[in-house]
């Protein structure tokens, strides 16, 4: 009954954002394991998108839902793809298999934890308030934070986290290209132009 009261109070969203931007070790795991941080994570994302679109304020109405949908999909893809790398046996676990398996289990977080971490990783998007250079720096910083979040939450190496990020980013792009091609071929058939391909 007193378990909830014995835990130290959670950090504020601002303190967590500062910790994320400073690459504080363990911050993404802290965010992912704190179920009460979902509101903070959504607030960080909303404020970051608002600041990045400040000069074109009406764009925010499109950027919020589209960006949030993108983050929702990315978090799921990061979780799914990283599990391919996290499933391999740990290289140092030969001497102490129990410890390795316990550590591996600790890193299997629910989707909501991944979503919170990726939402917090979007904080540098706010640098877009400075046109062009701020947007570029924010995008690069965001990618770096996403890779760190993948690495920390799945317990995999940094190169494996980079590969996870690349695969997760390529998958939607491949689906989009295939969809466009299928749509194009179907439109040729609708207009009776499929004879051009023969």
Q: What's this entry about, in short?
A:
With 198 residues, the protein is mainly alpha-helical. It is globular and about 65 Å long. The model is unreliable at 1-6 and 88-107 (pLDDT under 50).
Give the SSE layout.
Elements: H1 3-6, H2 13-21, H3 27-33, H4 38-52, H5 60-86, H6 97-106, H7 111-121, H8 133-154, H9 158-190
Helix pairs in contact: 3-7, 4-5, 4-7, 5-7, 5-9, 7-8, 8-9
Structure commentary:
By secondary structure, this protein is mainly alpha-helical. Helix content is 70%, strand content 0%. It has nine helices and no strands. The chain has helices at 3-6, 13-21, 27-33, 38-52, 60-86, 97-106, 111-121, 133-154, 158-190. Helix 3 (27-33) packs across helix 7 (111-121). The longest helix has 33 residues, at 158-190.
Spell out the key features of this protein.
198 residues, disordered N terminus, globular, 9 helices, mainly alpha, 70% helix
- What is the number of helices? 9
Tertiary shape:
globular
Q: Quickly give the structural class.
A: mainly alpha
Beta-strand percentage? under 5%
What is the N-to-C order of secondary-structure elements (H for helix, E for strand)?
A: HHHHHHHHH
The total beta strand count reads 0
Low-pLDDT stretches: 1-6, 88-107
What is the terminal-to-terminal distance?
73 Å
Helicity level, as a percent range? 55-70%
Give average pLDDT, whole number: 82
**How many strands, what sense, and barrel or not for the largest sheet?**
none
Radius of gyration: 20 Å
